Amino acid sequence: MKTLSKITKNIRSKNAGPFWVTVDLFFKDNNSFFYACENISNEKVSNILKIKKNQLKRFEIENLKVIKFSFPRKNIQGSRLDRDMHGASFAILFEQLLL
Description:
alpha+beta
């Protein structure tokens, strides 16, 4: 089995507005991109993020070799309960994902 960190150049998470976070998976080559498209299920990702599967949006951008996952923030950006203003802490959850 491979981990996601072995086949990506970069894994990045960031704000997608005050209500959403996006995780970008940048792949090293086309083979890695297509392998990930087939082996990363929305169910796996929603389990990692502890969200309902229907809250997850997935975008596969072939010419950039990128898969993006967007999901609603549990706490609105900048609210009293928000502990990650920039949404940067989510990327680490993906690094050891087994494919």
